[in-house]
Description:
Blueprint: H1 7-11, H2 18-38, H3 59-63, E1 82-83, E2 86-87, E3 91-94, E4 98-99, E5 104-110, E6 117-122, E7 125-131, E8 138-143, E9 154-161, E10 167-174
Parallel strand pairs: 4-10
Antiparallel strand pairs: 1-2, 3-5, 5-8, 6-7, 6-9, 9-10
Amino acid sequence: MPEEPTQEEQKKSFWTTLPGVLTAAATFITAVTGLIAILPDSKPHGPTPPPATTSPSFTDVTSTVPTSTPLPPVSFPDFGGCSFIGATNPVITLSRSSARKGEQVTVTGKGFCPADIIDFSVHVSDVGETTTDAKGGFVKTITIPQNAPNPGFPTDISADSRAHKGHASAPFTMA
């Protein structure tokens, strides 16, 4: 059975122990290093360059650039509601707002990225996938799974980009 610490050992401060002293030393060294790093350096490093006697002139350079040349028009391809960071405003609509387990619902989507794989879920159950068309749209018929929530349960049907470029959901109630 271990011995009980004496009253003197119980009153001993953390800062007087070896871990306390090491912690204090590390804190002091970190603080001094931080101060040295942020204080302005009063000595230049290396040789001092000679002072400039004249300032450079840029008039010769600019006079050779033609100013009347028009820039060609810039056009960007239509990504069907998709930007470089993903779909800008994906939306889905459902053929019906409620259904029983085993029944079918048609999901129509737009605003996704073109040629993107879309995964569908009812509540938390995966129910299928499709690939978007050239404009970022799709029509997919899904079947409500047997492990869907009980009748009357409000949930949603979701369409998620597999490449994490868009998400849309629509409210749905189990019938």
